[in-house]
Specification:
Dna Ligase, domain 1, five-stranded mixed beta sheet, four-stranded antiparallel beta sheet, globular
């Protein structure tokens, strides 16, 4: 991360704000997003609910026992995804290469934007704030995690700048609680275990030997130890995308066979969309606006292989309609990942090794769509004769 200036944009209580809609007064009351169908865990909570010790992921019964006045707000996951995609597009429109971490939290490197805006880092911060057009907390630091921590420590409509290098980032992080690790989804469960062992701050974690942390907590513990010491990986910006989606507003609430027929029409419209450009679909998100109780439902579907055949897409998507908990008034289908051009003419004969390499490359891309960029790795021998197993090989991204 040498030479990087990372800006973190944090939209506080983003999912709850979207779910509340125009009922802004709910944000000042003890409120939480109601559990999803089939679950007993509440979603994002308001500041007033946090004062009662209620937090995201708590079971509904425990939350109500702590605060009987807790207001449950129907979730709007589809609306939150759609608004967040618009906010990411707004940041990309100012020239930022954005890495989204979760809904309402994203980072980008401002180093390449300094000359573009000509006013130093404050000019870039002002441009990001104007692009988001929402109450936002902005943190500036030399590493990704330090920027996230800075954003959580500042107030709405303010920014916190951590000047210096990775040593300055480590000094800034040292007095902060280990619960900040929860802001990164892979490390969400780690702070509770650390606190049980008496490790309360990131400085306490950084002072421990890396070998001891790795022995107790494995690879996630080593990642957290590096973060606490001010080290972090480089940003992984997403590729800018043009949203390809279709929506169908239904004249009346339908379900069953009528809903499947509507979904089939939606798939046909999407496959005929000129923005698709003949490309196959790796993954798509099916969402619905519900009538009973309000709110929305959405489900991301990753296909076993990139598909360009509407019939096979129907076979993959239609069974998901049975999971919708209430009658539907609108359906939306959005492409989240594209594959290669579907209409590729196959040769009658060809090099078997070349065909195998192509299939392997396609399989790797599909695995990464499901499990992320680290979903497909390979073992690279480093020192096979070492007496320490950790030094014999490392995992690296699989490339062909």
């Amino acid at each position: 991360m040498d030479g990087a200036i990372v800006i973190c944009a944090l939209l506080p209580r983003f999912e709850l704000t979207v779910a509340a809609g125009g009922r802004r007064e709910l944000l000042g009351l003890p409120a939480a997003i109601a559990p999803r169908p089939g679950s007993q865990q509440i979603g994002e909570v308001s500041a007033a609910a946090e004062a009662f010790g209620i937090h995201r992921g708590m079971r509904l019964g425990e939350a109500l026992s702590r605060c009987p006045r807790l207001r449950l707000v129907p979730g709007d996951p589809a609306g939150a995804e759609q608004l967040w995609e618009a906010k990411l597009g707004a940041l990309e429109a100012i020239g930022a290469a954005v890495e989204p971490l979760r809904l309402g939290l994203a980072c980008f490197d401002a180093q390449g934007l300094l000359r573009l805006y000509g006013g130093g880092i404050e000019a870039v911060v002002a441009a990001a704030r104007e692009a988001l057009a929402m109450p936002v907390r902005l943190g500036v630091a030399p590493t990704r995690f330090a920027a996230v921590a800075a954003a959580t420590r500042t107030r709405v409509r303010r920014s916190l700048n951590v000047d210096g290098d990775e040593r300055a980032a480590a000094a800034f992080l040292a007095p902060l609680p280990v619960t900040l690790l929860q802001t990164l989804p892979p490390l969400a469960e780690l702070p509770a275990a650390l606190e049980r062992l008496g490790i309360a701050t990131l400085g306490d974690l950084a002072a421990l030997p890396a070998a001891a942390v790795g022995d107790r907590f494995g690879s996630l513990g080593l990642v957290a130890h590096r973060l606490a010491n001010g080290h972090d990986r480089a940003l992984r910006p997403r590729a800018p995308r043009v949203p390809v989606e279709e929506e169908l507003v239904l004249p009346e609430a339908i379900d069953g066979a009528g809903l499947e027929h509507a979904a089939g029409m939606l798939i046909d419209r999407l496959m005929a969309n000129p923005l698709r450009g003949g490309r196959a679909l790796r993954a798509a998100t099916l969402s619905a606006s519900l009538i009973e109780g309000g709110g929305t439902w959405h489900e991301r579907v990753v296909f076993r292989e990139a598909l360009g055949d509407p019939l096979r897409i129907r076979l993959a998507l239609l069974p998901r309609l049975r999971e919708i908990p209430a009658p539907v008034q609108a359906l939306r289908l959005t492409v989240t990942d594209f594959g290669p051009v579907a209409a590729v003419q196959q040769t009658l004969t060809g090099d078997p090794e070349k065909l195998r390499a192509q299939r392997l490359h396609e399989a790797v891309q599909q695995v990464r769509t499901v499990a992320g960029v680290d979903g497909a790795l390979r073992v690279l021998p480093i020192d096979p004769d070492s007496r320490l197993p950790e030094r014999r090989a490392v995992l690296t991204p699989f490339e062909r």
